Design the sequence.
């Protein structure tokens, strides 16, 4: 029993947000299991985009059928944890319910299924919250987009741009520094 559980802990799990699916990524090229929430898929299905996203939705359906892609709604416990934390970091209003739910799912998978997880997103409020929750994250891996974002680190209280790295606290007020794309 213990051995089985340990093996399971080594399985790599990737969690995708809406934008990652919208790149049209080919799931067959990935070895890992992929998780997302039903609401992320609903965002891709909205009428306005349904024709444009037809190929993407077909790929998603094939991945669900082959159990490569698993849809799961997180437990309330983890949604509450993410809500609380995002209020503290100031990301609460910057994140949609779907975003917060996806982070909650990631937290739940990290604690219950596998420690080897990675959430893919290019939303900086999501990245910010993930870094606060010790969730490993990576940006969109579509060629060209990743390299175009230049980040600046700033203090959300003093509103000053800092030269320090993200994991430090503001030397004036002590608040944890955040990052945002440079304009
Ligand atoms: Zn400050």
Sequence:
């Amino acid at each position: 029993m213990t051995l089985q559980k340990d093996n399971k802990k080594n399985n790599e799990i990737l969690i995708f947000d809406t934008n990652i699916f919208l790149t049209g990524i080919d799931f067959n090229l990935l070895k890992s299991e992929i998780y997302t929430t039903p609401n992320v898929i609903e965002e891709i299905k909205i009428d306005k985009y349904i024709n444009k996203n037809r190929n993407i939705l077909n790929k998603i359906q094939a991945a669900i059928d082959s159990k490569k892609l698993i849809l799961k709604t997180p437990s309330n416990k983890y949604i509450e944890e993410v809500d609380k934390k995002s209020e503290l970091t100031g990301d609460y209003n910057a994140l949609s319910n779907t975003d917060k739910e996806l982070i909650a799912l990631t937290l739940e998978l990290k604690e219950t299924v596998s420690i080897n997880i990675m959430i893919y997103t290019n939303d900086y409020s999501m990245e910010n919250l993930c870094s606060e929750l010790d969730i490993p994250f990576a940006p969109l891996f579509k060629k060209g987009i990743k390299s175009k974002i230049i980040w600046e680190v700033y203090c959300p209280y003093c509103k000053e741009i800092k030269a320090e790295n993200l994991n430090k606290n503001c030397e004036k007020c002590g608040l944890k520094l955040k990052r945002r794309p440079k304009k």
The first strand starts at residue 13 and ends at 16. Residues 155, 157-158, 170, 172-173, 175 surround zinc ion (CB under 6 Å). The chain has two domains: 2-141, 149-183. The CA atoms of residues 85 and 133 lie 8 Å apart.
